[in-house]
Structure formats: C-alpha cells, structure tokens
Amino acid sequence: MDWATLATALVAEDVADAIQAHSEQYETPVLQLVAEARAKGYETLTLPLTTEKWKKRWSDMCLMSMDATDSEKEEASKAAEAWRSRPGFLRDEVTISRLDEAEGIIVMISEWLELDSPDDGIRHDAEIALQQELAYASYLNIQTAILPPPRNRDYVASYARIINSCLTATPYISLSVRLPIYNPSVFQPGSPLRSPFQTPIGAKAATSSPGTPALVVSDLTLERPQNSETSLNATWEMWDLIRSMCDYNTRLTLTLDLSPALPSTLGVLSKWAAESVRYIFLPATTFIANMKGYPVLPKPTQAFLRDSMIHRPTILLADVNTGRHRRGGESAYSQYVRHLEKTSPPVQAAQKPGTVENFAQGYQDYLQAPLQPLMDNLPSATYQTFEQDPIKYSQYEEAMFRAFIDRPAGEKTVVCIAGAGRGPLVARCLKALERARREAIVFAIEKNPNAYVTLQYRQANEWGTKVQLIFGDMRAIEVPEKADILISELLGSFGDNELSPECLDGAMRFLKPDGISIPSSYTAHLAPLSSSKLYNEARSSKNDKSLETPYVVMFQNVNILSGTKASADGRCGPQIQECWEFEHPRSDVVLDARGLPLTNSHNARSAKLRFYIPHAGVLHGLAGYFEAVLYGTIGLSIHPHRKDQISKDMLSWFPLFFPFKEPLYLPSGSELQVSIWRLTNQKQVWYEWHAESFLSVPGKSTSNDELLLSAGPRSPAFSEGTPLSPMADREDPFLVDSGLSRSATLPPASSTMFHNRELGYELVKIGHTSLHNPGGRSSWIGL
Questions:
Q1: For 8-28, what is the mean pLDDT?
Q2: How would residue 470 be classed by pLDDT, with cut points 50, 70 and 90?
Q3: What is the DSSP string of 261-315?
Q4: Residue 775, by phi and psi: left (phi above 0), alpha (psi -120 to 50) or beta?
Q5: Which H or E element spans position 583?
Q6: Which of 36, 341, 357, 489 does the annotation list as catalytic?
Q7: Is the pLDDT at 307 greater than 50, yes or no?
Q8: Residues at site: Critical for specifying symmetric addition of methyl groups (predicted)?
C-alpha cells in the first residue's frame, strides 16, 4: 500500500510542447499529457490553469508603461473597466476547456497574481482575476487549486482576506496555499509584476521593485540583521495568519515547497507536522547527485520527507523531465521518493502488526469521549478491543508474579480482582500463581450484569473452584475475606480520568492492613500541543461544550510546543511535566463505619506548570498522559519519552486531549504557564484548565524595592549575553545567529538581584485563555 500520492507538476512549456507534438491518438493535447503522466506511474498531475496570453491581456489592461500616450492609457482604462464589470477568459487564455481534461487534475492558479501587493490597484485587480480563475475551475468541476504564494509579510492580511472571500464565493473547491518551508533569501521587497516602467491603471506610480518574487518580512526588517529563527518562522507565521483569518476553513490546505535546503536539526520545522499539509512541492533542483550520478535528496530533506509520509501527502515532482541529473531519467525521482516512503519509520511502524501505530489505523486524530465506567455498562465489543492488548496483560501478569514470589511460600494468599470485566485479569492471575507455584483464594468482583454472564461461563468452563465470583459495585458489596493483594485495571488515559481513585477508595476496605494494591500508584502528565486538525475536530459540532471536553485521541497531526530543555533561568520544567499522583492504599483518609471515605475531597488535585516555548507556535490544547507503577519496577506508561522503556507497543490507551476554545499564539522564547484542576463534589468529578503566556523583555528597575521584589525564585534571571529567545537547536551551525552568544547558565541565587539590575529583564504577560469547564458545566465523570 502506497502512503504518498505521486504527481508530476507540469508548466506552460509542457503544455506548449504537447500542442506541437499532439498525437491523433488523443483528442486534445491535455488528454495526451494526462495519459502520458499516468503511463509513467503518476497518479495525478498539476497544470497551470492559464496561458501567457492571459497574463499579457491582464497586464495590458491593468498595468501601463509610464511612456504610454494618453490615448493608449484611455484605451487600456476602458478595457480594464469592461473586464472588471464582466470578468472572463478568451479561448486561448486557458489550458483546459473540457470536463474530461479536468478530471482528477490539480490546477495551479496564475503565479503572477499579487494578492498581497502594497498597491491597492494591483491588489484589487489581482483579486478579480483570482475569482475569475476559481470560477472557471469550478465550472470544470476541478476539486483543488493551488494558489500563488504570499510574498509580502506587511500585506499578508490582505492576501488572507481575499482567500477567505474566495472560499465563501466558491464553496465546492479546495484551495491550497503554496509556501516555501522557510525563507532562505535575503529579505528584500519583491514583486513579480512591478517594473520601473509600469504603473497600475488608475493608480499613482509607486516605488519599483525587482521582477523576481521574493518574500518580504517587513520594511522594518531591512534596518536590522535577520537571524535564522526569524527566517525559519517567517513563512509559518504567514500561514498562521492566513488560516486564522480564514477561520481554520477545512477546505484551505497547505502546499509545502521543499526547494530550500533544510537545516540539519529539524526541531524548528516540527511545527509543520501540526498543519494541514496536503501537498509537498519537490522540484528537481532540490535533489543532488550521488556518487553514481543518480538524484537523491540531502539528508535533512530525506528525514523531513520520511517523517511526513505518515500524513499521506501528495508529492508534486517538478522539472523532473528536464534531464537535470545525468543518470536515472525521470523515473529515478519517483523511485527515490518511493524508497523514502518504504524506509519511513512512522510508515514501517504503522505496517508492523502489534504496534500501536498499526492497531490505531483509522483512529488517528479521531476524537473519542472517555469512558464512564461507573455510570455505563461497557458492551462486549469494547472489552474485546482492550483485551487485544498483550502488553498490558503481560505487565499485569509479571507484576502479580513478583508480588506472589515476594510472599512466604507456605502462607495462604487472598487475591481480590476489583472490576474483573470479562476475566482477562483473572486468567492472568491464575497463570502468575502457577508460575510462582503459589496457592491463593481469588475473588473476582464485577458490577456489569452482562459481563458477569461471561465470567460465569468462564468459571464453569475454565476456572472452576479456583475463582469465586461476586456481583456488585465494589463500593457497596462485601467480600468474605480480607485480601492480601487487590488488583484492578481502572486506569484512564490521564490515569485518574476514569475514576480509578474513587473506585479504589471503595475497594481498599477489602485489604488487610499490610495488603498491597496493583497498581500501587499512577501519575498524570501534561504538555502543550498545536494541531489545527484537532482544533477543527473539537469545534466541528458548533457547540461550546465540545471545546470544554477532554477527548481520547491517537495523536498524529500534532506538534508538542514545549522545549526538551529547560529555560535558561531554570523557571520552566521539561517538555512533558507531571501534574499529580495517586497512591493506593493510603492511610490519611477519614472513613465511616463501613470503611468508605466520608467525602471525595481527598481526591481533588491541582497543578501549576511552566513550559519553555523555543519556537513560535499556536497553542490549541494540552496533551495528557499517564504512568502507573503496578508492583516494584513493573509499570504501564503512555508517556512519549518513557513508554518504550516501560510498556512498549501497549495498545489500550491513547493520550487525552484538553482543547482550548481559541488558539493562543506563542512567540519564540516565550513561557507558557498552565493551570489544571481535578475537582469533585458528591456526584461528579471534572477538570478545569487555563493557560497564560509570558515573554522576557528588557525592562528598567527604578528602585531597590522593585529589585528586591523581582529577585525571588519566581523571577527570571539570565546570565549576561543570553539571547531573549534561545533556540532549542542552538548547536546547529545553520541556526546560529553570529551576533548573539547561545550559551546560558543559571547564576547563583545570591547574584540574581545583581543580574536583574544589570540586564533589567522582566516577565511580561502577552496573553491568556479563558477558564475552561468551570464547575464541570460541559464535561464531567459521574460517581
């Protein structure tokens, strides 16, 4: 099975050549191009929608030489006004004219359209031309059009407004913005249409600019040197503005241009994994020749493309028929891309049976409501799905085996399995007892009356008198005998989100004073993430409650925003941080006469976490994980950094996603403070969450009192020469800004005030979210 779709990106010259070499075997030159492309193994192709004649007519109408006579200007003005009132093409201005030609084709909108021109007149006429081209594409039932890239950061808002207008006007076509993965050029004003000899009709002459397109970040940037962080972020920030102004429209996607050489450390580029990259533009110029003369990609581009394969992109191979490399021919490029696909680690993991990636096919980025195990009785199919996880149950068996081994050989052991389901833990318990050569009395408790039927069947046919079944809620029933070991599998994706603490509160009374629980403890962990896909999925219901509900998700199109290294001043923690822990059994709970807690207040929790954001990104939500200690050194984990060491390829749990109602932009080098609460009353448990963003900026201290107030452990303290926005991949020479030192050390506590006085850094708040799910108004778990 192919993960990527291969396409050839043809240009106007290819169409002209096809017209000259038209074979009578095909009705039209375009049909001939399509047939030839498919014969070469391409699944689709891109074609320019218009010809040079359209560009010439538009330029003659809307631009005018400064040397033109008054009569020529008047004639052009009349032609332009006539066109503006009724836009349309002439026959020789388009490349495609029939439905059968357009079938399956991706069209390229005229690249010379300046939708972000600083000149109002050019921008206005470019918008009319774009609407005309999209209307014609819609007429031919073309499904996707790739738009010309924005070039001018100062006017990208105008570009975005025009795209949003076109999405409204043409509701059945998808638009894709073509952008280089970053801007490799020296930033200069650039314009493909303007020249010293042209001015828009009806507008005053403006400053001329070169004819080659170039990205303009800002007029102000010309006055100061650009570091590589700015260059690498520039195009992403354009995209972020465009898709935000288009309200994250699902018909707006991204065509990522891999023409520029990529840095050897890809951390700064990871943000693209969270975006809706539908197409990857890969020209022959990006390839280099290997020792034998065949085309290959530089290693950083190889790595990026391998990682991107999991998103099933369409690869647009451009200029591969020009003989740029001396060996291999056109087919060598396609074969090489297929080689990268086959050697892609994410693709290999997805194709390997038994891996989480393989198990989760079809569930990637699909929002699922967490289970309500106390309120609902699970169907057999749900049990069946969880029982397919061999890793979880082997871990449980090993934990039980070690617990049995640690008990005296001749002593009777009483085991209580709280929440037996359809019996997988019971079976593993009996197997562990056999391995340990121990005898035990096993009680299996289950409240689901339907699952209890399955337990009775297994008792009659497999277990016999080895197991005693007890029907009822573990918080209400009694057991015949106190247990030495209490075993449960009540954990959720966030550890406690399926009410394991509350359930086990009711079961702890079954334990002897020296009894143990498996699991013995579990922790919840959080990280900030960006994902336009998940954000769109969460708000698709148009109901505010959907954006205040945690979801179980198998992450794919996501980017964890926090850095793997702590900030220079030591304020921020690691990339993924622990929120809280639950331990079982616990002795500090006030119990009633039955051994049950009087209230649930002891299970309330809160956490305040600080994350360092090394690269600019947009916060769409929080990623939740858990880690559990079953017994001794045996555990379960979905923590991304530790799961492979603790319980590799465990299938039972996907992470938890806490969405935010509105995206929060985080600049490079900022600090994100996340607050999260686990709250409860006598009937429900729910989560509330909130985030604030801060940036360290130069400030001035006006008094010793202010210095003393800011010199505590909660204030930033930087060593001299530390940049305001240190990059996570600072060792990469590609990313080094020669004007700044990248070294940063934490000064001793005694020198904090001195450094604050010398440097005057202060933490300035730049944004925050609303409080999500206050009082459990949108989502809760019922007790």
A1: 90
A2: very high
A3: PPPS--GGGGGGGGS-EEEEEEEGGG-EE-TTS-EE--HHHHHHHHHHGGG-PEE
A4: left
A5: strand 577-583
A6: 489
A7: yes
A8: 386
What is the structure's pLDDT at 120?
94
**407-436 average pLDDT score:** 94
Give the chain's mean pLDDT. 85
For 432-448, b where at least 16 C-beta lie within 10 A, e where not — what string?
Answer: bbeebebebbbbbbbbb
Residue 392 known to bind ligand = yes
Does the annotation place 383 within a ligand binding site? yes
Q: Please tell me the total number of residues recorded for the chain in this structure.
A: 783
Q: In angstroms, what is the C-alpha Rg of the chain?
A: 32
Q: What is the mean pLDDT of residues 177-194?
A: 60
The dihedrals phi and psi of 535, each to the nearest 5 degrees, come to: -60, -45
Q: Assess whether pLDDT exceeds 70 at residue 382.
A: yes
**Rounded distance between C-alpha atoms, residue 564 and residue 566, angstroms:** 7
**Is 761 annotated as belonging to a binding site?**
no
Question: How crowded is residue 32: how many other Cβ atoms within 10 Å of its Cβ?
Answer: 18
pLDDT tens for each residue of 169-182: 999 999 999 998 87
Q: How many CB atoms lie within 10 A of CB 359?
A: 20
341 carries an active-site annotation: no
CB of 80 within 8 A of CB of 61?
yes
Question: SS3 for 607-663, per residue?
Answer: EEEEEEECCCEEEEEEEEEEEEEEECCEEEECCCCCHHHHHCCCCCCCCEEEEEEEE
Tokens of 469: 């079944």
Which residues are bridge partners to 487 per DSSP? 417, 518
How far apart (Å, rounded) are the C-alpha atoms in residues 540 and 538?
6
**Amino acid type, 381:** A
Distance, in Å, from the CA atom of 244 to the CA atom of 252, rounded to the nearest integer, reads 11
Residue 245 assigned as binding residue: no
Instruction: Let me know if 489 is a catalytic residue.
Output: yes
Q: Which of 498, 502, 688, 762 is catalytic?
A: 498
pLDDT tens digits, one per residue of 707-755: 333 434 333 333 333 333 332 333 443 333 333 333 333 333 333 333 4
Q: Which of 156, 137, 373, 332 is nearest to 245 (CA)?
A: 156
CA distances in angstroms from 536 to 182, 239, 526, 533, 552, listed in the order given: 25, 16, 21, 5, 15
Q: Is 704 exposed, middle or buried (0-12, 13-18, 19+ CB in 10 A)?
A: exposed
For 697, the enclosing helix (H) or strand (E) is: strand 684-698
Tens digit of each residue's pLDDT (9 = 90 or more) over 477-502: 999 999 999 999 999 999 999 999 99
Q: How far is CA 400 from the centre of its chain?
A: 38
Helix pair 70-85, 52-62: axis angle to 10 deg = 120
Contacts of 440 (CB under 8 A, 6+ apart): 404, 412, 413, 414, 415, 429, 433
159 is annotated as contributing to ligand binding: no
What number is the average pLDDT over the span 676-685?
Answer: 94
What is the b/e burial string over 119-132, where b = at least 16 CB atoms within 10 angstroms of the residue's CB?
bebbbbbbbbbbbb
Per-residue CA distances from 118 to 114, 133, 150, 246, 490 (Å): 9, 22, 12, 21, 60
Q: What does the pLDDT look like over 605-659, one tens digit per residue?
A: 999 999 999 999 999 999 999 999 999 999 999 999 999 999 999 989 999 999 9
pTM of the model: 0.84
Provide mean pLDDT across the span 291-313: 93
DSSP string, 168-222: HH-TT-EEEEEEESS--SPP----SS--TTEEETTS-------SS---B--GGGG
Within 10 A of 382 (CB to CB), how many other CB atoms are there?
14
